[in-house]
Design a protein that fits this description.
With about 230 residues, the protein is an alpha/beta fold. The chain contains twelve helices and six strands. It has a six-stranded parallel beta sheet, with helices on both faces. α2 packs parallel to α3, α8 packs across α10 and α8 packs across α11. The radius of gyration is 18 Å and the shape is globular. It holds the Pfam family GerE. Keywords: DNA-binding, Transcription, Transcription regulation. This is Two-component system response regulator. One of its GO terms (molecular function) is DNA binding.
Length: about 230
């Protein structure tokens, strides 16, 4: 992600995502661009109640599995209680069904987890203006998939998971939870230098240049959900 300084028309918004590191990084980037970010809360289960109580203009709501049953129940609840709040879903590359389900639940837009900050901001502004906010390439991809369905799509998450050792998977999960080198070392019972080496190896294997990019890639491909929680 490339994040810079931008928009002068600040929006009152909330960022709610299961992965705290992503939520806080996105909230910080949006604050730098002049927006008033109310919260960057983590658990999806309490997301709807939090948004209803704070009533932002726009809510960026993270989801790891747009095709799963009930994935957009929080959107339904928010729109029922606070119809004036525009909800933009933040998630992995969705299937056409995933995009349709998000809009059917009342969402105003859908943005990929790894979208550039300019794209996220465009979606926020469109949603606040009452317009549908979906990147053209996402729609093109969805229509392309409808017209030319792939029999067995490449499972990028599974492929990436196979590249990592169990210990590296644990390191990646901890990185995505926002743990620094010291916390990773303490949680795994290893030296900070060893933890740092593991982190560098994970970044190298995933082909990314930063911890934030690694967390975004893991979230987008569903790798974190396959890996499960760390002990």
């Amino acid at each position: 992600m490339v994040w810079g300084v931008g928009c002068s028309m600040g929006v009152r918004l909330m960022v709610v995502d299961d992965h705290r590191l992503l939520a806080e990084a996105l909230a910080s980037a949006l604050k730098l661009r002049g927006h008033r970010v109310l919260a960057a809360a983590a658990p999806a289960a309490g997301a709807a109640d939090l948004v209803i109580s704070r009533a932002p203009e726009v809510c960026l709501l993270g989801t790891a599995g747009p095709a799963e049953p009930g994935a957009f129940d929080p959107v339904v609840k928010i729109k029922r209680e606070r119809p004036q709040v525009a909800v933009v879903v933040l998630g992995p590359v969705p299937s056409p069904r995933g995009i349709a389900a998000a809009f059917a639940a009342g969402a105003s837009g859908y943005v990929r987890h790894d979208e550039r900050i300019e794209g996220v901001e465009r979606a926020i502004m469109k949603a606040r203006a009452g317009e549908a906010a979906v990147a053209p390439q996402l729609l093109q991809g969805a229509f392309g998939e409808l017209l030319n369905p792939v029999a067995q799509p490449d499972d990028e998450g599974a492929r990436l998971l196979q590249m990592l050792t169990p210990r590296e998977v644990e390191v990646l999960v901890r990185v995505a939870e926002g743990e620094d080198t010291r916390l990773i070392a303490a949680g795994m019972g290893i030296a900070p230098s060893t933890a740092r080496t593991h982190v560098q190896r994970v970044l190298m294997k995933l082909g990314v240049g930063s911890r934030l990019e690694a967390a975004a890639l893991a979230a987008r491909t569903g790798l974190l959900d396959r890996a499960g929680p760390v002990g």
